[in-house]
Each structure stands twice: as structure tokens, then as C-alpha cells.
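Second attempt. The first submission of Patatin had a stray character pasted in from the spreadsheet, which I only caught after the job came back as garbage. Lesson logged: always re-copy from the clean sequence file. Corrected sequence (321 aa) follows.
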Amino acid sequence: MSETTNVAIACQGGGSHTAFTAGVLEELLRECDWDEEFELVGISGTSGGAFNALAVWYGLVTEGPDRAADLVTSIWDDLAADEYGDRLLNSWLTSLNRLGDSGWPLPRISPYQVPGKEIGKERIREVLETHIDFDAIPVFCRHETPELVVGTVNVNAGVFETFVDEDVTVEAVLASAAVPNVFEAVEIHGHYHWDGLFSQNPPVRDMMHQPPERKPEELWIIQINPQELEGEPTTLEEIADRRNELSGNISLNQELGFVEQINEWVAEGKLPTEEFAQTEIHRIEMGRDYHCSTKLDRDPEFIAELMDLGRSQCGAFLDER
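This time the job returned cleanly.
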């Protein structure tokens, strides 16, 4: 085992709720000793989690942990709805989404029926390209840098598809966040891609397939959707909310089941320790319930609240260690 602990971080998707993840990551980057205690060997993300994973990776490989911490918060500052018109639109969309979950008979419109450019997607592209030089990503992909993984689903092939390291383009990140009822699919290499929430949320297995000296000894999951629920959902809103949470966790638990199976086989001596290693799984959870309609909410105060919660939950996680 190396002197430092090899760590992989997986960032679950969940729209605006992944501002919580940004707060967690900022705290991890500023408070952990990434020179003597930990080495980041991989970071993955889906949907909003992909924004965070990309920002952390790019900041680390270009300048280091402090730059990565600044970058992940700057991206969310820019994504927040801070202008008057944007705030009105944000409030309208959030309210409309909540009404739909309440059972109101609202008209349903395909994103392909909306005239003009996809304003939301173009806004995300502009923010990402302001902070990230995507042309430079292949230059920084070296053996000693962390692996970067972004999760999507290939609509045409009907399979999960991840983009790794130099294959992470702005189109791949936009595809990972392309919610089908909000955004048009993103075409990459002749195939159309949707939001990675349908697939590996977040990707884990890709980060396990590394050389022996780079295999993760610990996997830190930043989890948006609560795993457990007390009581029974009875109203249409409660049922819709819980279904949303469960659908977001199914793929995560499948990914973690793969890691747990490897751990078991290593412990039983069925796999050679020269090629396989046991990986401890740790979760950093929100610990607070928000209605699923707020996953579209980019109100600056709400984003700041989520980031503060992330810092607090990360502090508790580090204290427990």
C-alpha cells in the first residue's frame, strides 16, 4: 500500500442539487492534505455532478487544489440565476415543475417543439467554456493525473456510455446533463445522447480499472438522493419525489454492488492482490430533503444554501475520519 491513500470521488447527478457537491468538493480540496495523506486517482460525475468533476479535475491538473476549489465554486456562481429576467424564468420553471408533480393537468411540450435555440443549454456551454479550455484537456491527460469520467446514455445504441479523459468534450458534458423533457439530445460520433441520470449515476466501474499502483483504496460517493425514507409517501407530490430519488439511486447501488463483489472476492482469495485491491466505500450525503422540483431551481440564495450544506456535511465526514 502506498504512503498516501488512493482516493476516487464519484459525484451523483441531480440538477441544481449538485451545488451541494460543489460545497463538499471545495471543503475536501481545502481541508485534506493532497500531498502527504491522499492522492486523487479518479473523479467521475453525471449531469450536474459532471460539472463538478470536470472543474475539480481541470483545476488540479492546471494549478492545484486551491485553483480547483475556486473553479468549482466559480462555475456555480455563474450558473446561478442572478439577472432579473433569468430569475423570473427560474421561478416560473420551478413553480411549473412543482404543479406538474402535484397532478395539475399541464400541457406537455417536447423540447423539439420549442422555437429557437435551447437557451439553457447554451448558457451551460458558455459558462463551461469560460472556465475550461476543452482543447487543452488531452494535453493534461497523463499517467500521473486523475482519471476523469463523465456518464451519459447512448439513446440509439441503448447502452450506458462514459467519456474518459481526452474524450471529455463540452458536448459530452452537455450530453450528461441533457434531461430529455427539457433539452434536445446531444449528437456525438453519429449517436444521440441523453442525461446520464438514466445510466451510471455516477460512474464508478471505470475508475476501478486502473493499474495496481493507481487503484482506489477508498471511494468517496457524494450522494444527492437520500437512500432511506421514513414513513409512506401518500400524496402525488410525495410519490413523485420518492420515485425520482429511487430512480437516481438504482444505478448508483448497482455500481457499488460491483465494487463490493470485488472486495468479497479479494478477501476470499479468488482474485490476485497484485491486480485487484479492496476499496472502502464512504458516502457523503445531503442529510436534508428537498422537493425534486428544486432540482431546477438556480436561485442564488438556494445555490448558496446547498453549497454551505455541502461544506458542513463534508466537515462532519472529515471529523469522523
